[in-house]
Specification:
Elements: E1 4-6, H1 8-14, H2 18-24, H3 29-37, H4 47-57, H5 61-64, E2 65-67, E3 73-74, H6 79-84, E4 87-88, E5 92-96, H7 103-115, E6 119-124, E7 142-144, H8 147-156, E8 160-166, H9 168-172, H10 174-184, E9 190-195, E10 213-216, H11 219-223, E11 236-237, H12 247-273, H13 283-295, H14 304-307, H15 315-326, H16 335-338
Helix pairs in contact: 1-4, 8-10, 12-13, 12-15
Main location: membrane
Protein name: ATP synthase A/B type C-terminal domain-containing protein
Pfam families: ATP-synt_VA_C
Length: 345
């Protein structure tokens, strides 16, 4: 069967203010977001939705659909990211978080890990001063302070590039102009990570525009110091709906999300009435969900004094570990023993 997906790059270029534009023709921004990340199968999308998006982009429906091209993940060896919402190579990734939820620690850890790989990181600093970036921005291979400087650096580099910048350049429209120049000059190999240091991103629909990957951080996990505080249900990636992720990964992710969704519901009961009030037969679900949630915490190299020595875990090992937990083979292990470890082995 032919693989089809939305041409997110074209949509991003043609419709910079997509949220407002989509609403104006009766398309919910959440629908557009889910189509971009693959949460909604493009083959199941309503024809009127695709026609509407094509009209906004001033293109044909055929131009809006990409056929037969694979999307590949960049393996970070961070369990939660790789398992729930893989980083899409040459895609655009948005981190949705309020200040203090750990987005800068994730960013710092990624840049640290990229130094060990064949990726080069370029950080375009926000337009305003942010003191919280001290100690993080220095981990980038190159720091730029303007869109023009960023373009010069991106155009002279070769190989795989991680380009990091702030939402302020989306609001000003400068990021769109930069992306247009990059495309016109046939510069490829660039994967973009977007952050929002203001925290306003949490309150808006599609604040970054169309994305291939959404990393949404969770206040409850952050409050309980369960880092990285990636929301396992709301974080999405178009890779998960593509051809680069095998059916085992896809199936395990669905099973893990189902368990964690029910576990989160049960946590509300336990918080109010205590664990003794859980419905009969749900105790095992609750405790297994606790263990799986604990497993997805991970020691970071950039935060070793808080988490212990940093650990890297391959996606293959993560899949093996998740399967073991889902099958109940770790039920005898305490939750505390699973927190901030690498792999189960």
């Amino acid at each position: 069967m032919e693989e089809i997906r939305l041409n997110v790059a074209l949509l991003r270029r043609k419709v910079p203010n997509l949220t407002t534009a989509a609403k104006s023709i009766g398309i919910r921004p959440a629908t557009v977001s889910n189509l971009c990340t693959g949460k909604i199968d493009l083959g199941k999308a309503e024809v009127k939705t695709l026609v509407g998006l094509a009209s906004l982009a001033n293109c044909t429906v055929d131009e809006l659909i990409i056929r037969g091209e694979k999307k590949h993940m960049i393996e970070t060896q961070i369990k939660a990211l790789d398992f729930f919402a893989p980083l899409v190579k040459e895609g655009t990734i948005g981190i949705v978080a309020r200040p203090g939820m750990g987005q800068l620690v994730i960013l710092a850890e990624l840049m640290h890990r990229f130094k060990e790989s064949n990726h080069t990181s370029v950080f375009l600093l926000p337009q305003k001063e942010h003191s919280e970036l001290e100690g993080t921005k220095e981990l980038a291979d190159y720091i730029t302070t303007s869109v023009d400087d960023a373009y010069e650096k991106l155009s002279e580099l070769t190989g795989d590039i991680i380009f990091i910048t702030d939402r302020s350049y989306i609001i000003s429209g400068e990021l769109l102009d930069l992306q247009e120049k990059i495309i016109s000059e046939n510069i490829d190999g660039i994967t973009t990570i977007l952050v929002d240091l203001s925290g306003e991103v949490v309150d808006e629909e599609m604040p970054f525009g169309p994305l291939e990957t959404v990393w949404q951080l969770d206040a409850d996990l952050a409050t309980r110091h369960m880092y990285p505080a990636l929301h396992p249900i709301y974080s999405t990636s178009s890779v998960m709906e593509g051809t680069d992720v095998d059916q085992r990964h896809f199936g395990l992710r669905q099973r893990a999300q189902k368990l964690l969704r029910r576990y989160r519901e049960l946590r509300s009961i336990v918080a109010v009435h205590g664990i003794q009030k859980l419905p009969e037969g749900e105790l095992a679900t609750y405790e297994r969900g606790e263990r799986l949630e604990a497993y997805f915490t991970q020691p970071f190299y950039v935060a070793e004094k808080f988490t212990g020595p940093g650990k890297a875990v391959s996606i293959e090992q993560t899949l093996n570990d998740v399967e073991v937990i889902l099958e109940g083979k770790q039920d005898q292990v305490s939750v505390e023993e699973l927190k901030f470890v690498g792999s189960l082995s």
